[in-house]
Amino acid sequence: MNPGVITTGSSGATYIGNLLAAQPRLPDSPLAWLNDLRAAAVERVGELTVPTTRDEDWRFTDLTLLTQMSFHPAHEAASVRSADVEKFYITEATTRLVFVDGAYAPQFSVIAAEAAGMVSHLASAAAAAIEPHLGRHVEPGSNIFAALNTAFLRDAALIVIPRDRVIPAPVQLLFVATQKDSASYPRCLIVAESGSAVTVIEDYVSLQHEPYFTNSVTEVVLGEQAQVHHVRVQREGAQAFHIANCAVALARGSHYRSVSVALGARISRLDLTVLHDAPGAECAVDGLALITDRQLADTHSCIVHAQPHGVSRQLHKCIVGGSAHAVFNGKVMVRPGAQRINSDQSNRNLLLTGKAHIDTKPQLEIFADDVKCTHGATVGQLDSEEVFYLQSRGLSESAARSMLTYAFGAEIIERIPVRSLRHQLEQSVLAQTASPS
Amino acid sequence: MIQQDSKTILEVRGLCASINGTPILKNLNFTVKSGEVHAIMGPNGSGKSTFSKVLAGHTAYEITAGSIQFDGRDLLALAPEERARAGVFLAFQYPIEIPGVANNQFLRLMYNTIQTQRGKEELDPLEFDDYVREKMKLLEMNPDFLDRSVNEGFSGGEKKRNEILQMALLEPRLAILDETDSGLDIDALRIVSNGVNHLANKDNGIVLVTHYQRMLNYIVPDFVHVMDQGRIIKTGGRELALELETRGYDWVHAEYQAAERAAA
Question: Which helix (H) or strand (E) holds A362?
């Protein structure tokens, strides 16, 4: 991408121009550093262009459809029936922050006593704890969507857990989209200080089926020995555009585990970067994309071992039906001097139809000599012998296919440490695999 | 056991089947009556496993001639799942693994699907749990196998026991056991054989497809058939299996060819 060049008349430039023009100037925050952060991001947006398929990182994901849309900022105070939102509540999550079209919705949110003072949103937060982190981990330098998110940063979900504290029950961050043709910019910051632990569910849902745009940024910072379980569920509306950037920074001995599930959206993209910034950190990064019809789901992950003695493990699976298209690009980087790294990456893909399509690219870039890194990718269809086995036990062919497809996805879903969410997702997988695709 | 008043369960007449244009079964004739145990023996590549899969309805095989009547119905007109519901059961030589699906879930789905088709009551998870545990005792299986994924990480013997457990649950009219003895140590062979003997009764028929006669020490067949080049070339009693064990198959083959020449 060429910073500073806006090709006049290109759909990408028009799109950005429209977004900027439509967005009223945000009121100044009392936090000077936040105003500076936003101002810098606005400037950055002006210098960047929307990526095209000529950009290596976007080769397989064509954003032309997105750039042809015009989105307006979500209106404030959209009226939402509580029953519509409640159905997405995760029962185990005693603390829940709900954002409707990007705006904090106190009427749906609840903060349990055990999380008091640790879970909040930007408008009400103590600034000292977040200033060193907000906007410091996702690099907006070359990433126009991250820059846009920061430019329009008005509120954010904040989880800041002090040293050695633990939030026992999961925290749900629920982002609800209700307005057609609207753009929202969800933002999350999770800071787990030394020795602390938390489970966070970042959940994107929709109450309508028309096009809209979610452009989210999540930053996760783990202090020494901290443990974070991060579950990301993208179950947006069928016509939605969902572009997400998530950056994770790991300190010494910390342990980050994440499961990202992509079910919804017409076009979705997740850029996940995990930086092992100190020795002895561990991450396990798993993902499942289950798509059909004309959906496109793109996951770009980058695990960077910048320091020695790190462990990373990744299993990413795609189940692709209809004429859908899945993209996986998984990069593992071992920087010079980062010795004794143990890294294992695997991408497994299941194509359910002749028109389904997957582009996968596992990538290892190793600049140290004492490391153990494995990676691999497979693409396959359901095995006819397996289908026959189940038929010979009385299951219809479609039930047999559904069970095998479900089993393929279940391996990832089982890794979600929240029972009711596992159950919900299993039902989603069953519903989707049962329908002829 | 051979009975006076037995009914014909399976009647295969002049069956020819091929895969990708290559003929495998060539004019095969085979009859099973209720209460009977049949062993089909023969060298590698004689078509034994193909015959098992054709009976169960594997779609890779093309039936080019002949007929299969099952309880008076045209078996070839039925899809694999319909055959299972009608009472055909195949214990696989290589049972598949299904990571991500718990064995008890799978067994219950299978059981309830068949029960519903037969117009019987389904069992809820608790009722089924009691039922399946009872059946597992028959095969001396550890109940832990219920919670594990279907066949995943099972040893060869455990997989075969799981197959016979499915047979016990489905109570088939015709059970075809394809090389069930392969990969079993002597204890597992005894346990699996006891299970099969327990399930054999006057109303069903059992077909053992095997290379070796050692399983026939435990499950005593009424008939032993020798299969060669896609057809049955000799049929005898249990003593034929012992003779095959000591003399091999070549003499049967030679005898058959001599008879063919004499007839020609």
Answer: strand A357-366
Of A389, A394, A403, the CB nearest to B117: A394
Nearest chain B residue to A394 by CA distance is B81
Do B66 and B12 contact (CB within 8 A), yes or no?
yes
**CA A181 to CA A276: how far, in whole Å?**
38
Q: Do A410 and B92 touch (CB under 8 A)?
A: no
A410 contacts B100? CB cut-off 8 A: yes
B78 touches chain A (CB under 8 A): no
What is the DSSP track for B100-149?
A: EEEHHHHHHHHHHHHHHHTT-----HHHHHHHHHHHHHHTT--GGGGTSE
Q: Report yes or no: A185 and A149 within 8 Å, Cβ to Cβ.
A: yes
Please give the average per-residue pLDDT across B208-215, as a whole number: 92
C-alpha closest to that of A413 among A331, A293, A290, A329: A290
Contact A222, A252 (CB under 8 A): no
Which pLDDT score, from 0 to 100, does residue B3 have? 78
**List of chain A residues with pLDDT < 50:** 1-9, 436-437
Interchain CB distance below 8 Å, B101 and A410: yes
Q: What is the pLDDT of residues B89-110, one digit of tens each?
A: 999 999 999 888 889 999 999 9
pLDDT at A125 (0 to 100): 66
Q: What is the pLDDT of residue B162?
A: 97
Other Cβ atoms less than 10 A from the Cβ of A171: the count is 25
- In DSSP terms, A358 is beta-bridged to A326
Of the residues B98, B151, B165, the best mutation for testing chain A's interface (the one with the most A CB atoms within 10 Å of its CB) is: B98
A328-346 residues labelled b (16+ CB within 10 A) or e (exposed): bbbbbbbbeebbebebbbb
Residue of A nearest to B87 (CA): A394
Q: Which of A384, A393, A410 sits opposite B166 (nearest CB)?
A: A393
Comparing C-alpha atoms, which of A332, A340, A338 is closest to residue A363?
A332
Chain A residue with CA closest to B117: the answer is A394
CA atoms within 13 A on the CB side of A204: 34
Q: Centre a 10 Å sphere on the Cβ of residue A68 and count the other Cβ atoms it contains.
A: 10
DSSP result, A160-173: EE-TT-B--S-EEE
**pTM for this prediction:** 0.86
Whether B15 has a pLDDT exceeding 80, the answer reads: yes
pLDDT of the residue at A401: 92
Tokens 């299986």: give the residue: B141
- In sequence order, what E strands does chain B have? 8-19, 22-33, 37-41, 62-70, 73-74, 88-91, 98-102, 149-150, 174-178, 205-210, 223-228, 231-236
Residue B28 clears pLDDT 50, i.e. is over it? yes
Q: Give the separation between CA B98 and CA A383, rounded to whole angstroms.
A: 11
The chain A residue lying nearest B172, using CA atoms, is: A393
Residue B56: which of A392, A407, A410 has the nearest Cβ? Answer: A392
Torsion of CA B84, B89, B95, B101, to 10 degrees: 40
User: Which chain B residue has the Cα nearest residue A397?
Assistant: B81
Contacting residues of A for B56, CB less than 8 Å apart: 388, 392
The span from the CA of A403 to the CA of A359, in Å, is 25
**What's the gap in Å between the CA of A399 and the closest CA on chain B?**
10
List strand residue ranges (DSSP E) for A108-240, in order: 119-121, 157-161, 171-177, 182-184, 187-192, 197-206, 213-222, 227-235
Contact of B189 with chain A, judged by CB distance below 8 Å, is answered with: no
Instruction: Name the more confident of B94 and B1.
Output: B94
Distance in Å, alpha carbon of A418 to nearest chain B alpha carbon: 17
Tens digits of residue pLDDT in A78-96: 688 999 999 999 999 999 9
pLDDT in tens, A118-162: 999 987 766 778 888 999 898 767 899 999 999 999 899 999 999
Mean pLDDT value across chain B? 94
Q: What is the pLDDT of residue A12?
A: 62
